[in-house]
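Protocol step 4 of 6: structure prediction from sequence.
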Amino acid sequence: MPESQATPPRLRAVVVHRALTGGLFLMTAVMLLLGSRVPSSLGATPVFVLQAAALAFGASGFGAATVIRSRIQPLERGDSEDTWWQSNFGRALLVWALIESPSVAGTVFHFITGSVLPLIVTGVGLVLLMINAPARLVQD
């Protein structure tokens, strides 16, 4: 594709972020709808293990995302936003992936167990995805 027709890096970041966030919203809605129709037949021990796994996975993923996010430098005055996105898109994508993966796991663990606790991980992940939107990454 010629350079003049290439997708601007900022637009690419916005599309990827919205796809990740929208996909997580959609998956959570579908799993909540299906989960209310499927009874859980797990005992207390597997439910506890999955709850603990959801919390541990969430804490580690969200913590790693926060550390990587803190290393992303804001846009300097006079710099181009496209240039900033070209150099920081990989880090931003890593932050979003580290937030989304435990969130998806929380949704799946809720579906399996019927417990609300893994959904808390999903909710925190959705909030963190909104906090780490492309426009905020550039500004902060």
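Step 5 (inspection) to follow. The mean pLDDT is 89.
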